[in-house]
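Q: My labmate handed me this sequence with no annotations at all. I'd like to see what the chain might look like in three dimensions before we decide whether it's worth expressing. Could you predict it?
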Amino acid sequence: MSSNQEPLAAHNQSGRAQRVNLDAGGNARLTTLGRTAYLQALDDGWADHRRLHHEGRRARALYDGAREAVASVLGARTDEVFFAPSPTAAFHAVIPALLAGHKRKGNLVVASRIERAAVLNALEFSNATEHLVTVDERGFVDPDGFSAAVAQPGVAFAALQQANHEVATLQPLDHAREACTKAGVPLLVDATASLTHVAPPTGLWDALIASPADWGGGQGVGVLALKSRARARRVWPEDQDAWFPGGASLPAIFAAAVTLQEAESLRKERAQLHTELIDSIRRAAALLPDTEVLGDPFNRLPHMCTFSCLYVDSEALMAQFDALGFAVGSGSACTSASLEPSHVLAAMGVLTHGNVRVTLDWDVTREQVARFVQVLPQAVAQVRGEMGVTGL
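A: Here is what I predict for the chain of 392 residues:
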């Protein structure tokens, strides 16, 4: 870090820069209540919850309580909630199962071009015939195109995210649900980026997947909710854990359920604060030369925003912010092994490089975001200068 940058980074009493997590999408810190719940389950739920002895029954009480808590938020029955080792594992299980369950109808799956890679990869691996609906420059799925697609013969099921995980745009779930109901097509809803940030999509799904790590519930668990009316045939060997052989960690499950209820109870209060803070970041980014703020400015998640800066590299920008004490993400896959640009941004027709994604953690403060807004212009200018781009 150059000397003219050092005053912009806040320091604690020891002189070390205070770190701020602005990359909380699927990576939020475990809440205090979640940590307490996890430790309680380590003490009280260590036994196999399928056993009939006292210790097993005590573990079963925690497991059943977790299912009931999640079901109450999602508007599901308790027996319609299952826990996977991760959200990705949930996608990889339910997609081939829905295909197998609707094999007689056909092998066509309707989704959008900007679904998570876990969805698109599972469809490809399952040899599904894909109809990927286009999106506009905001990342909004064409509702008429989606309706027309699900009305085709041979559609096994449809998949649509409640909100996009890279640019925060909310999707027309009401419209999609209506179209799927009319066509007799089940709808898989990806709520991994949206649950606890906006109202749960109650009544709008046949299958739903959520990510506890997104709301501060910790890693190591994913949520699958599957309506009893949805035909699904498992395509793996029989096991006493019907959906996810071997099961998931009970402490992780219990912490996920407790923090889901916690986050849902605080949702409106947090959303109001996060909307205000994200608005300030969007305004600051919009003032930067040759910078585009992405996603719908109004119909969006309250805690996330993405902007793209021309003439810079995403990895260099993330490194610059990291040096200043801010962990940020990127809509580009430039830091993954694939070295491929974001398929979401490409589908939107916007810049696929030089992007920064900010996702607020549950405990973010106004002061932390104000510091980020303060360093933003200089950070971008610094990276552009290092790349030989000046005078913008």
